[in-house]
Sequence to fold (633 residues):
Amino acid sequence: MNISTFSDLAHDWDALVREDRVHRSIYTDPRIFELEMTRVFGAVWVYLAHESQVPRNDDFVTARLGLRPLVVVRDSRGELRALFNRCAHRGARVCRAERGSARTFQCPYHGWSYFNDGRLRGVPWPEGYACDFKDGSYNLAQVPRVESYRGLVFGTLNAEAPELKEYLAGARKPIDEWLDRNPGGRVVVAEANRLKFKGNWKLAYDNAADGYHVAFSHRSLLETENRHAADPSKGMSFYLGKPDEAPMYVQAFAHGHHFKDKRPNVAQRPGALWEMEAVQPGMERYEALIRQKLGAKAARALDLAASQPVNINIFPNLSILGNHLQVFQPVSVDETETLWYATAIVDEANELAGTADAVNAIRMRTQESFPNFGEVDDAANFEEIQKGLAAVEDEWVYMHRGLGVAGRVQQLPDGSLRAPATDEVFMREHMKVWKRLMSSRPSLVAKR
Amino acid sequence: MSYIDDAFYERLVAAFSDWQRPELELQDLQIREQCRALLEREARLLDQGRYPEWLELYAPECVVWVPGAAEPGDPRREVSVFFDDRRRLEDRIYRLGTGAAWSQVPPSRTVRFVANVEAFRTEERTVLMVRSNFFLSEFRAGEARLLSGWCGHRLRRRQVGWEIEAKQVNLIDRDQPLRNPSLIL
Fold:
């Protein structure tokens, strides 16, 4: 049978998501996209913001949960909240700024105002109303569950979702390792490279742990990173040759999270990561400065300026890669924003003997490299997929690399799956999760 | 070897702070015309993909800075859309030449319009700051689009003409998601 349209299938998710392939319509059908915004984005923990974007009480930053406009705020008592940015009266967005600090939000349309914990503060000329504005019915709606894991703020509308820590499952270990290497075990957001492409959000998530595309999609980057080197040894050069046999691996966890760990490609000694870093503006003079101040201890600081070789992907919308927090933000079935939040280190205990600013000065430039010289080419390929999928009769998109090949996929004691970094097992695993979620009827509620 | 260090960043941030002051406006029509001609030549060389010739317009120790923040701060503490020293500009050109920079296969066809050129004096007699507005009309892969913004050029007098020490490109939507920012701006 040709599955030409969504209506052919009703809601037969088993027909759309097979063991080795998925149907093109999951990337192209606006009705499926609309369901995803509740059944996927409403039902699981979705990354919203980083705590460093709202460091003080009354700070706010706007975000989206699926398509829902939010104001993520640290309210006047210090509690993190995700308010629906939607006036309880007529629905206009009450907050038009993307970030700032405010104790109250007043809707510009009819002047209803709210405290930054969502409670209604007042409406103009209340004597014209018969209702009781004190009963909470007219507070701003808000995401009922907002939690932070070590600075990463997530929210869910699903009362039945597990605790955030439980949801993050095996991905907590690489997240902890990613944070613990920094002074004080934390990072702060330092602006972003913001991109968008005309394609479905899952094309970006499918790509997030894909070690198969790199040698092809990023050929121009690999060649550029290594143009000064006699032998390719810089940047992502470990993808050249036989990446199937490289020591890096991909690990797939519960709930659709995955981890492509490229650290085994790097010699396990301080300074090895820095030696692999491709040339970046300012690297020589800041390296000299850091070596002068730290001497034999400079290697740790320099490694913090280099790109960390990990991709830690938290379904459905966060990818911690290099030193970035990349957020996948769906716009429509065929448009997605990818927001590459850069991170800086903060060295309050002076572990790096006054070199943190120099580390950050390099680290900002290393973080510009991939969005400029790598991601743009992936985004072009995602757009080409979206165009290619207009071929209705050619129905399937494959993700079966490694499937059925003896010895490729290994089940670890914690239940996660481990395979060579060029294996598509991680896609098959998150598509199983997607199918389970799309088959469910989550009960989603906002609170007031 | 990159020449970027704290002193470079500090000079850059100082040069691009509070420079469009009325008392610094340069009225000399001949010099303003020289500035306009340089900016128009730069636009043409980029439109024609003549990158090595374009790079010759720049000082040996130059920078092209495309801030990403609504209110640009110190580039040492925040990422930019681009922050390219000469070597990274050469990387950018090299990458386009590999034939595998898929975001530019097929390449964009562009025309850049430069307008509203104003020149401002600096504390150095041989250095000018120039403000100009731009439209960049682009056609690629079946679609046309328009980018716009304003540029600040820091120019230093050479024996013949001027060379560009630094360019700041301020896209009007620099703090919003950009689609395929793979052009050299």
